[in-house]
Amino acid sequence: MHLTITRPDDWHLHLRDGAAMADVVGATAAVFARAIVMPNLQPPVTSVGQAIGYRKRILAALPPESAFEPLMTLYLTDLTPLDEVRRARDAGVVGFKLYPAGATTNSDAGVTDFDRVAPTIEAMERCGLVLLVHGEVTDPTVDIFDREKVFIDRVLDPLLARHQGLRVVFEHVTTRDAVDFVRASPPRIGATITPQHLLLNRNDLLVGGIRPHNYCLPVLKREGHRQALVTAATGGDPRFFLGTDSAPHGRSTKETSCGCAGCFSAHAALAFYAEVFEAAGELERLEAFASFHGADFYGLARNQDQVTLVKDPQVVPSSYGFGDDEVVPLRAGEEIKWRVERVD
Ligand code: DOR
Ligand code: ZN
After folding, report:
1. Confidence of residue 262 (pLDDT cuts 50, 70, 90)
2. I need a surface site. Which of 150, 189, 227, 242 has the fewest CB within 10 A?
3. Is 90 assigned a catalytic role?
4. Cβ < 6 Å from ligand 1: which residues?
């Protein structure tokens, strides 16, 4: 069985840097035409100059014939200069990533004071830049499974009311609450959905032993939330689109007493989504979710070329090279139903 769709884009991707980046970027570039590259390096990508340098390093790591286009973002901090917003727009940066300080991997330099960044966000609104939001509160008294829901009430809703023209992507939504919120919002609000949140629930993290390679943030939720995400992704609503949040970490930093958050899914990202859409009986809607909704939201042209998936079960390798270390991919050692046969 074959399925040919317009070539997709990944609207949320972590590539890291250096030799590790060179080991993972090809997996994304082989299938996706473009990807929005997250800025949470160490140190974070906070200036246009840093983003231009990072983009060059990504392009240099690609095979010469690759036409893959990294779309760059800047990391919003309490101290982002107002002028950086205009410089970003002029340089073709697509948006700013908002990490509440301490919410996730390399987010320590994130926003601590939403009043303080309001003028910067107003400038984004004027320049037409998108705000990409990691939607979890960091209040230590809030249970980790509730942090997304509480973020909607405490931060996102007031932010949208304050900035009535701002375009926002609620990244990697994980709950029914987030799905309902996006559905009830105006079209200037979009949301990405990852393969792991569509395929797995929190039992896959914790039952029968702790599985560090299924640990990501926002953390996997209970089954009812997963089902709400599947309904959102496969339902045809243009506000929901593909963003893998593929976030590789070396095995040694995952299989340890305090392991990093992040699932590496770039090796089989489109295949994972195809499996979800097939299981939901909505394979014909995969193309819009993967290849149209995100481009339309960001105001970019849809891709012209096509990818063909084939149903041809394979076993996922147990690891891939990752700089000095190795990365354990999503579903390592288990079967995956689809693979990309060709791009043309
Ligand atoms: O699981 C995650 N990993 N969530 C994030 O928000 C960041 C990412 C990373 O950079 O590893
Ligand atoms: Zn991410």
Report:
1. very high
2. 227
3. no
4. 14, 40, 104-105, 134, 216-217, 247, 261-262
